[in-house]
Write a structure and sequence with these properties.
By secondary structure, this protein is of the alpha/beta class. The protein is built from 4 helices and 10 strands, in the order H-H-E-H-E-E-E-E-E-H-E-E-E-E.
């Protein structure tokens, strides 16, 4: 009687054990979605930092218009994507800034671009109305400016300064570069010295990319 019961129990447990083993193996497999997921902006590091910044025609027009319209610093959220080492900025949305927090020498956002409702942000951009001191490191040094320190505290792939006829920007490689805008009428005073703390490289383009 006992032997018969044991035989029946073993016949039940064997297929159940095999099923549990298969379920356990499947649970150990990574999710396909995670394997195929591309790097989010905050995951961009110095090793794969962007080497070029491309502004759409709409983004370029917005920057030039804002620069000519205000004597205080303005701030925007650069919305776009990173493609094979190139930051493509499709448009620029206004950051959430209180009027009293924008002066000729500083601008402070009230909240992040994402909390302000702008998804797809690849970096922040602000202006230097006089076209001066457009650097992330003090010239001839490795000492970060206030802009350089602010960039280190956020997670975006790039940060940029609107500086008259050009945009000076930096990526996680901590190398400054400049993208020309091709409109010297925007400059209100003599531009900053071309020398930068870690060497400014002129790259990128202001040609239109993507739709407007």
């Amino acid at each position: 009687m006992i032997a018969g019961s044991m035989g029946t129990l073993l016949r039940v447990l064997r297929p159940l054990g095999a099923t549990l083993g298969i379920v356990s193996l499947l649970a150990l497999q990574p999710e396909p979605a995670r394997l195929a997921r591309s790097a989010a902006p905050h995951e961009v590091s110095a090793a794969n930092a962007p080497r070029a910044l491309v502004l759409s025609e709409q983004a370029r027009r917005f920057l030039l218009l804002q620069y000519r319209s205000f004597s205080t610093e303005f701030m925007g959220c650069m919305i776009g994507e990173v493609q094979a080492g190139v930051v493509v900025v499709k448009r620029i949305a206004p950051a959430d800034v209180e009027p009293e927090e924008s002066t000729p020498t500083r601008v402070i956002p009230k909240q992040t671009c994402e909390r302000a409702g702008w998804s797809g942000t690849v970096g922040m951009i602000h202006s230097h109305p006089t076209g001066e001191r457009c650097w992330y490191y003090f010239p001839g040094t490795q000492v970060p400016s206030s802009d350089g320190q602010s960039f280190r505290l956020n997670d975006y792939p790039v940060d940029a300064i609107m500086c008259g006829d050009r945009v000076v920007w930096i990526s996680r490689s901590l190398v400054e570069r400049a993208t020309p805008l091709g409109d010297r009428r925007a400059v209100r005073s003599a531009p900053a010295r071309p020398q930068r703390g870690n060497g400014t490289q002129h790259t990128g383009s202001s040609d239109p990319v993507g739709g407007e």
